[in-house]
Amino acid sequence: MISQAHKPGEGPYTTRTPRVSAALKLQRRKERDATGRFLAEGPQAVREALAAGVVLELFITAPGPAGLAELAGGGDLPPVSVVTEEAMKALAETVTPQGIVAVCEQRDRELAEVVARRPQLVAVAVDIRDPGNAGTILRTADAAGAAAVIFAGDAVDPYNGKCVRASAGSLFHVDIVRERDIDRVLNALDGMQVFATTGRGAVDLFELEPRLAEPTAWLFGGEAHGLPEAVMARAQRVRVPIYGGAESLNLAAAAAVCLYASARAQRSSPEL
Amino acid sequence: MISQAHKPGEGPYTTRTPRVSAALKLQRRKERDATGRFLAEGPQAVREALAAGVVLELFITAPGPAGLAELAGGGDLPPVSVVTEEAMKALAETVTPQGIVAVCEQRDRELAEVVARRPQLVAVAVDIRDPGNAGTILRTADAAGAAAVIFAGDAVDPYNGKCVRASAGSLFHVDIVRERDIDRVLNALDGMQVFATTGRGAVDLFELEPRLAEPTAWLFGGEAHGLPEAVMARAQRVRVPIYGGAESLNLAAAAAVCLYASARAQRSSPEL
Q: What does the alpha-carbon distance between residue B146 and residue B124 come to, in Å, rounded to a whole number?
């Protein structure tokens, strides 16, 4: 993965410095879990990470992107290492690195803490395995004004590089909860109405509208098998209406339609 | 790409039969454009393709999936070739082939023909380069009841294997138009209201609602640069509201929210 060839005069070869090596290991889940750290790349993600106060360390290329202070928005900058293009290529997981990578601190929330704040809107991703889908749900939930995204069951690591990129910074805006035990999640959501999307739901999403103004948790199931029956049984099944020949929507589209239906209902003027 | 190793006793090695070789070439755009054909794989896509009457030829593995007649829904079956697992692996572009691949006929519609039918809802994908996004837009537009998806400008080939798979059969349900000249598309849509999604739109999607019941074309721009200014200038700019910290929605999520807002408005009872 790390190309060791470099032209003379390109500057010091820093791919194997202790700092870079330690950061590189964060591309693996095991190391992320062990250290509670993860990587975020590109100016947008780094700006959001700095604003959230979770950046421990920055890597930039020389000359690197101008405006580090601008990215920090006047706040303090963490330690910055200038690295070669080659080291950046190794640190960044994209084909065309954008010249800046941050080592960030994971800040999962406790389930009880999130629920205690009485959120109006929460997304629960159950058994989501695809990091792109997980990131898209984070981004869409954030856009729709959800307070938290709960990764329940056998979920992908939300700090996976692909998920961080797909979230487009939203990982730093919403509260993230990870809880393997789905029953614990459902017990904690006791004070909210809990809806599960399914093709065979009894109630049409748009018939549900007056009720969507109430505090709501949306359960979204995994790509392959949807929501487990035992989970469905504890939620109200809702059908996103299909007006054409399609059998269903994909996960990201269904989540967008449901979360925005809630957002719209929760923000409509009372007379509607 | 084609592994030639096979165990003795696996049956005839048919990867290089003329029929298989001709089908394999359809994995390349150049060949698809030249022949007007494309590949669809898996029982769901093949069932929809058979129902649409566009299947020219089928490849199955021996023993192959049971229920070919069931897939055909009682209709006539096109010529069927039984091929080795190895040939199937080459024909299918997925990691775990589902044992059936169809050679289909492309059936693009003429822009004028589609517009003449006075559709209620149309999606226009402008400069969409990612086949997964193109397929998702097809699927979401179909689910929302759109009559057609118009691929305008410098678009991906909608008959690309990844797009066909992401469309989950919807490629066979909606009318597909391809037109490089975006001005021609906008001229043809003259009788419909044309909305363009943008983060900087003047009108909030949900404020627009009473008007969404009218015949509508939604323009969705490319992943990297959005819609060209010249196109924006000819449409009404609409903002999908962002309630949280996200800068924007991704393409698939924005399309889902907009198309379903139209679908809902077009199907609401008149007194709403």
A: 11
